[in-house]
Amino acid sequence: MTTSEILKELESLGQESIKRVLLKHGVNEPLYGVKIEDLKKLQKKIKNGHDIALELYKSGIYDAMYLAGIIAEPEKMTAKDLQAWAQSATAPTLREYTVAGVAAESKHGMELAMKWIESKDEGIASTGWATLSNVVSITDDSKLEIPLLKELLKTIPQQIDKSPNRVKSSMNGFMIAVGTYVTELNELAKQTAVKIGKVKVDVGDTACKVPYALDYIEKAEGRNSIGKKKKTARC
């Protein structure tokens, strides 16, 4: 399939009901409102996915940009590509799932994440924290910079209350990820969660809830899944 053929099919798959939900969750036009399951079906039809992924993302159409993230080949992404994706993302889901997932699976994940979390731009900073969460979820503990992750955890209590909404949410996600996926830092993550308490984030006109990090980590403990890594950061 060509990029133009894919865009036409995406438009035909769009549903107004899905579009309304996405708009409530901070997605901006242009978008068609395609179900994730339909994007996954379309993914299987696409050959030479990486080059097409770059073209789809440049279209600026939300559904195409999301699809780009699941067909891209992270090992082929340059730091310049990922920076461009982060800067042109049009929704929190693209920043914190699509871009963060692809970045984490690339060879530039940690480098870019550390750069992004220092940004004054809310969207870029939230992408950075989400990328860090993804990195720890798929990387063996022996290959992680444990002292660096420990220092990042220690900075969150001083930063989170004065951070913008999406950054707060991503910081909370980082606490959960470290406590769940990094065995050595499980206790510190729980202590940090207790110190901070429940993180309050304005989720707008949605039913979304920000999980209490301690509860989430303890549930993972109950499943005996602490330290068990994911196969992929993308979904």
Globally, the shape reads globular
Relative strand content? under 5%
Order of helices and strands: HHHHHHHHHHHHH
End-to-end Cα distance: 22 Å
Query: In angstroms, what is the radius of gyration?
Result: 18 Å
Proportion of helical residues: 55-70%
Low-confidence region ranges = none
How many structural domains can be distinguished in the coordinates?
2
**Count of helical regions:** 13
Structural class: mainly alpha
Overall strand count: 0
Sketch the major β-sheet.
none
Average pLDDT number? 96
Question: What would your notes on this structure say?
Answer:
There is one protein chain. It is built from 13 helices and no strands. The chain has 235 residues and is mainly α. It folds into two domains: 72 residues, no CATH class; 144 residues, no CATH class. Helix 7 runs antiparallel to helix 8 and helix 9 runs parallel beside helix 11.
Can you give me a brief rundown of this structure?
The protein has helices spanning 3-13, 16-24, 36-43, 49-58, 62-71, 79-88, 92-105, 109-116, 122-138, 146-159, 165-181, 186-196, 213-222. It has 235 residues and is mainly alpha-helical.
